[in-house]
Specification:
Elements (H helix, E strand, L loop, with lengths): L5 H4 L6 H18 L12 H10 L11
Helix pairs in contact: 2-3
Length: 66
């Protein structure tokens, strides 16, 4: 997968571990529902589509308020 690049994705979510976890969870949701939050995704694969959603800021990490 070339797009979006990991460097670009880390501007949205700084932790690679968190990014991988969110992408995997969202990819399962896309597979089950067939609903993608971005218009005309470039990727045909669920993980790629999930990462495109992260890049488009449709999927993000909710920070804990302490």
């Amino acid at each position: 997968m070339l797009e979006p690049s990991v460097d670009d994705l880390q501007t949205k979510i700084s932790s690679k571990y968190t990014l991988a976890t969110i992408a995997a969870k969202r990819a399962r949701e896309i597979q089950e529902t067939d609903r993608v939050l971005v218009d005309h995704p470039k990727s045909n694969k669920y993980v790629g589509q999930a990462l495109e959603e992260v890049m488009a800021e449709k999927v993000f990490v909710k920070e804990d308020s302490k």
